[in-house]
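Its record is retained below.
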Amino acid sequence: VDMLDILHASALRDAESHDSNFTSFYWNISQNVTKEKHRTATSGIAGCVTPGGDVLLPHKGRPILGCEKLLLQGLPYFRLALQNETEVQLGDLAGNAMSLTVVSACMLGSILAEQARQEMGLKKLKPDSTEKERRDFADMIYDKFHRINPHLRNDAKSNVRVQDNCILPEMKTCATKLFRDLANLADEAIDSSVLCTCESSGRNSRTQEFVQCETCRVTCCRNCLSDNAGYNLSSHKTSEFSVTREKHDSGRFQTKLRSLLPASLYLTATGLGEIESIGHRYSKNIISFADCPFNLHRIKRDKRKWIISYYARNNDVGEAVGELRITVGDIKTVDIVSEQQANLGVSVILTSFLLARSDSPTFGALPPTATLCVKKDDVGNTEPCWISKAPSRKGSLHVVGEGVSESPRISVGLVDSVEQDLKAAATKSHNLKFFNSARERNEERRWIYTKNWDKWPKVITIESEDCDSLSGTYERASCEQTVNMNALWIRHRTDNAPTLYLLIEPNVSRTGPDNAIITSSISYQSQYVIAKFPHYWQPCDAFDERKFTVNHVEFHEWKEVNSMKCEALYTSVQVNSNKCLETDVLMTVQGLTDRQCNMLCQRLESKETVLKLPVHSGQRAQQIIRVFNSVCVSAIQQHVASSGLHFGLLPDDDGWHELKKQDPNKPFGTCEECVPQRPVEHWVFDKERERWDRKYESGASRKFRLALQGAPTPFEIWLNREQRLLNIKFFPYVAAHYVGRQLIDGRDVDAGDVSVKFRFTDTYLQDDPIIDPFKVKTCRDEATTDIELKKPYSLYDRQKRVITKMLNIERGVTQFEELEMVENPLYGSSGLNVTTIAERVSKLGGGVIADAIGAGKTVVSIGLILNGLKEARANKMFPRRTSATLVVVPPALLHQWKLEIDKFSPTTLNVTVIYDFSTLQNLAIKNILDSDVVIVPIDILESKGYFENLAKKANLNKSYKEKLPRLPTHSGQKEINDARGVWIPATSADPYAGSNNSTNQQNRNASAFYTHVYQEAIRNIRNNDVFKESDRAVPLEFFEWERVIVDEIHESLCTTKSEIDDARERDGKDFFKEKNRRAGREFLGITIKNVTKRPLVYRKAIFGLSGTPLLDSSSRVIELANLMGNAYVFGLSSHWRRLEKESSRDIFLENYLEPVKGREARTAEFNKCQDYLDVACCRNKVDDEEMNGCVLQTHIRRVRISMEEKRLYLDSMKGIPEDKRSLSIRPEDFEDVSPGSFAKFLKQNASLKSRGEELVRICKKILHEDPKTKIIVFTDGSIDAGLTASSILNSEKDLGCTSLLPTDSNEVKNKKISWYQHGDVTVEDKARPRILVLHFEHCAGLNLQTECNNLVLFGPLYTGTGGTNSDPVADASSELQAIGRVYRAGQPKMTVHTFKIIAEGPEGEELLDGQILRRNTNEETIAMATNAAE
């Protein structure tokens, strides 16, 4: 059962039950279900806020926000100098901060205690004082403190202050016309509102088709409607409707609202006085709102309506003390059956917060004090009348139920034993006293269930003499999950009576039980509530004759307030915008009062008439921005909505505006003032710790930080006190230099080629990015290039088109428009941004051939080499220019590549295969220069002696004689594919924040130092002019190659946590070196932007080959483009890969500098990634004709384990409590368990005896039918499954197997694999075992189809450490690659058989195998692994 279901059922299990969909709960779902309680002991108290805690607010349907975590900890979020922190980082900042606030409060109290005593003239309290004296002393301090500090009193009147500037009567207009204008927009408001939960985050649904429940009016888009993976509305009576994209455009409608709304609203004193005279407790002191402005605060898009909030604040900018909430759209939810016409229009609700700020505060949501309703098309002359809450009267109802339906407790699966458990708990000795007291108060239902708790009536009949209008028959609706407790009874409309609803109103704060209500709306808005049942009544009481009469029912009454008027203040503040770039002033805000000017600069010491407001960062800036929001933002938004803004926001404006270079000698991105250069780091050996550490010049980091703080910003705000105006200045060239630096920094490109353009955008008008899985197109539109191969072989047409695409890249014909974008928001909450784009057209230096597995990527590459062979040989020149194409491959493919070249080349090519450093030692420079093809393993850097030889020939041994670095054993950063973040704290002991785990930074330093030394060695060796043609063992980095081809390029890009942990597990065991991606990334120079400084230099191009490119995220596309030819794709400058080697200081600065990505930037990133794939990549499939009718048959072999295996299976779940161990356990259940424990569980699963026996049966059956065939078995080497399978097969006398041993050299491994690539000729060949056992790490690139058509997956692949640390895309890719070793073009058999061994429980229960099988064969996962466009 899911954890959320358990917690939801637990909330309903309580005697005083609550529906978690509508009631405030605080659930830490990152905890184990046994540790997390569904509620705290005291309502309103949150649990511990931890950095890694994933806290869910079920009634909100979302996790808790980072800012909310800070507020829960007592940290003043609105006064913190925050910048680009993400929600996750804010949450981590709040984590475990409770001690800070508590200790600080205690220290402050101690410091002020003596001073307070002296100021108040109090005598010291004697140590031997009685408890009463101490209490009286505390009360005296409280009273005197508030008398001395009246501005801190929680008295209502002192908290609301009238502005000291006079409001002229002619500036105010009656708001009735405004409300009627808004009411006429009700249809548009509903069309543009939130119509599905998927739109609640600001985006719009991708479909225009929606469904709506005719009863409860819930709506859902077609894409989210599903019985399994989406929203289940099977209990609702739904109808379909559609909304065009134009009508559903929320940005356009919000602009229309802003053009209508005034800056402030006022309420008349006479009306407020009449409301207060009515005498309801919620209207106490409401007269203090007279002449107090309600300023526009927020416009919110909601479900079937828009909500406009106006706040009255203390001193205009202080805390909110009242709210005017305007609702446009569906103002009263009714069912379609009873009311054919929806209640559309405008409702205005006045709510006072004064009760929450009084000496005896009221907690929880506060009900409205007064309300106004204006229906759509209300064009009468009658002035709409306000109504105010009046004191309720008490009475009784006669309530009888009939027919039986499920109670919500039964619907969640509670059974009778729950009732007995609650009774037993209530009568225990420590509870009995309180239980008896509750009985006396008629509150025993807060302890135990009533007798018929499991039944609720289908029909409820109500009769009343006290309120006859409520009498009638109420029928229960079938709607589930959309109303509290699924409780909805409807009295349908008749000629004599309107529609009424019986609901259970949730007590959101859980300060008491829920109450049944009778209302005229399917909502819990108090202005529509007619009657409220006493807290002890429950629907099941309608079956109990003794409880048919319900007393103490509250009948709500509302009275008209004829004198109440609302007035709109169209402020004298005016905004004018500039139409050209001749001046820096973008907008001028005029008409400010002296008081507003003083508020804007009240925290500034400067007395100058014209001054620049410090709004960039810091607490002072936060305070100024709050005043700016209050005074100016509404006028700015109205100006933009009504008149538009030039440079992108005018209706007839084409948007982008090109910037001309101010100085030809200072291209975009080269201004040091706008973008200061970072200090250069040096490496110094720490003899004490025996390690190399980064060092900087003294004070360099501080100077850099000060330079950053002093750098110009795109926006500045200047105040002219004398003229009482505000100038908002815009400097486009500041933004241009910043975005230009991103595009050219660290790259060997001409900055003069960079062009920059900008435009202003409105955040509210930006569409949410629609991000589909990336697709790679075919080459069907390319011409064919014929290459002659050795007879009888020839290229297919699709392969000829691929060669054409590759030749176009090599010839510089293919161009790509590089792009970087930065969004700079205007200070405050106006929603305006300036979006700046830097562009540069470049010639592609490489590409990716992602043809399907078996489509012939190798032969295409050979064809490319043959086509330019003559030119390559002519390019040869001593000492560096070789005629060879360098082919970088996984070690297992070295021999296969040579065989393929010999097989397809019509002429003899000079092919040099370098297996390791020992092979290189026998090769002279002349051998490399004369070669046509050089084939090397991608992990050549790990070959013993290679790096030492490079350092020696580069003369580095003297510089690093203390300690020459070795290839790091761990990555400095792990790739995360889901949404996570890490807060990096800065302390006085560690000002640059060494991250939460110091080991991570040590790994980053080790990686950075290795790259530093490696790069220095490459520079030195390339400057070495003393080499002779006969010199041997010259490193490969010395040469300039004709081109570079990297086979299985995706292998080096994957760096998920699971892959790294698996590599760590394999070290010292059967660890196959091509999966050590660290060596491959260093050899390819993946983190080096300047292509001329990378280890491998080429003249024409670099190409990557991959059958499963794993383009499941923009991050992988971005670095693939950077690696394959130095193409810059949007976002490269902030790519996560830089963290692999960054210092803690630079990580801190990256967080400081990194711009926030808005919707437009995310859309641009996706589009640019897809553009690169369209231009530089291709993926072609094998035609059916090429497969000659060969089909793939998959056989799922399910085997049931024995009882003894079951015991071992359960015992291997180390770290899981015994009572929680089960056959259905999931990897997610190992979240809090050490990785080693989960690996042991996987190892036990792989070593099940039944699995091995099934492998033997499969192999024997295959060989019985065809004794000459060969079988490939793939296993997971990280958990020793290969050793298990080999041991089982070798124990069978008539089977045996060949496996690759960790002690085998690359040459020996290639030789073993070759035995299964060609037919048996010699007696020795025929005597070898028929079975080859490989690891999934060997799956890429091998051609085994000619001799094998049977493949066995020993078990489904799962690479991870438990919890959520896994990569299903990579695992599915590996399984596809494994199958592709035999199911590919050139397979002579008509059928390829794939066997998957899946273990099950003794009774057929699903085990881990079944879960992983479903995961790895999911259609979406496979699509992301292959990224095929067709």
Summary: The CA atoms of residues 1005 and 1141 lie 6 Å apart. Residues 145-170, 974-996, 1055-1075 have pLDDT under 50 and may be disordered. The chain has 40 helices and 48 strands.
